[in-house]
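Sharing a chain and its predicted structure for anyone who wants a worked example. Both blocks are below, sequence first, C-alpha cells second.
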Amino acid sequence: MKKNFRKYSILILTVCMGLQACDKGFEEMNTNPNASATPTPAFVFTKALLDGSGDVLNLLQGTMQYTTSYNDVAGFGAKYILSQSQQSWTVFNNAYPKEINEIQQVIGQVSGSPDQVNLLSCARIWRIYCFSRVTDLYGDVPYSQAGKGFESANYKPVYDPQQAIYADMLKELDEAAAAIDPTKANFGAADLIYNGDMAKWKKFSYSLMLRLAMRMTKADIALAETWAKKAIAGGVITVDADVAKVSGYVSAGQDINKNPLALAMLNSDYIGANGSSNPEGGKFQDVFINYLKTNKDPRLGVLSVVWVGGKADTTAATQKGMSSSLSSKPANFVTYSEPNPATILQLNSPYLLLTNAETSFLLAEAALRGWYSGASASASYVNGISASMRQWSLFGAGGTISDNQIQTYIKYHSLNTAGTFASQMEQIYTQFWVGVYPNSQEVFASYRRTGYPALVPNNYVGNATGGKIFRRFLYPATEQNLNGENYQATIARQGPDEFLTRMWWDRP
C-alpha cells in the first residue's frame, strides 16, 4: 500500500511539474506576436484619421443630385431603391469597430498626463468629428458607452438621445480647444491633418463647433446662437492655409494610403477612363451639370469631362448630365459627363474635411441672423464662393481657377441683400451645395436643415420613400439581433427605424 501511495505521489508530482511547465509557456503561446498590449498612441491616431476620413459616402452624391446611375443597385442614393436599403448600414457598421474604437484607445493611452494634453485634445476633437458623422446620419446612436467593449466588456451600449449627444460633443470641443498648450508635445508627423500645428487644431475644433451649432437652428435656436457665437469668438477657419484636410495620400501602393473618395469612384466606375465601360453605370447627374452650365460656373471644366474620341474633353458646351430616371444603359452613354481624372480622381490628392468655403457660408448665415459682426453676410458669402473655387488648386494644375474667372462669376452671383431672409438663405445654401462638393454628407445635412438647394425628389419606381428625399439612414439589422433591447428603446423614443423619420435637429 505504501509502495502504491509513493508511486502515485511521484506520478502526481511529475504531472503537476509538467503542468507548471506548460503554464509557463502558455501565455507566450497564446499571445499574438503581431499585436501590442500597449498600442503606441501615435500609430493608432494615424489609423483613426485614415479610417475616419476613409468612410466615404458615394451614395449621398446621388442623393444630393451630383451623380446618378442607370443601374438600380449602384443608383440607390439617387433612386432610394427599397431593395437596396441595406446600403445605408455601412457608416454605422464601419465607424464603431474602426475609427471610434481606435480613437477611444488613443484617449485611454494619453489621458491623465499633463505633458500629453495636446495629444488628448487632438484625440477628443477627432472623436467628435467621427461621432458627428454617425449621429447626423442615424439620429440617436451609441455614444456615452460606445467603444467600451475592450476596456469594460460592454458589448450592448445604450443609444443616447441626439440632443444629449450634441450637448456633450459641443462641450468636448470647447474643453479640447481650451486645453491646447503650444508649449507641450504634439503628434507631429503622425498627424495627417496639421502635422502637429496646434493653433490650427484649435481652429478646426471651433469650426467643427460652428458646424454643429448651426445644425441646431431648427431644434433650439437660442442654443444654436450661444454656441455659434462661442465658436466664432474662439476663432474658426477663415483662410485657405487652415483648411482641415488629410494629406499625404499616394497614387500607388496599399489602398489605405490613397485618397478614399477618388479610390471609391475609380473602383466603382471610372478606372477604365473611356466613358463607356463604367461597371456601375455612374455619371454626373443632369441637375448638377445643368446648374453649372446655366450659371457659366468655371468649376465645370475642373470637375467634369466627356470622353470624346478616347480623350477627356472639358469644354463647357460638351458637358451633359444624365437623368436619374433611367433604368437601363442609354445608347449614348459615352456622351454624358463624369468626374475629371485630372482633379477629383487623383489618388494622391488631399481629402477635404472642413474648409474655408464651408465656414464662410456658415458665417454668412450667422451674419444674416445677427450673430456675427466680423463681416457682412454678403462679404462672407463672397468669401465662400472665392474659397470654394481656389481650393481646387489643391488637386493639381487642372484645378486652377483664375482670379479673373472668380471675380466674373461673383459679379453675376452677388447676394441679394434686399431679398427676404428665405431668399438669401436659398442663395447661400445653393452656393454651399456647389462650393462644398464633394462633401456630400455635409451638404445632405445642410439640405435637411435649410431645405436648400431646392432639389426635386426622384420618384423612381420601387423607391423606399414614396418619392421623397430620405431624412436619415437605417440602423443595421445586426443591431436588432445583438443589441435588441437598446435598439427598441431608441425606436420608441426617436420614432420608427425608417428613412423618413426625422432626428432631433431635423424636426419641422
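Comments welcome. The two ends are 90 Å apart (CA to CA).
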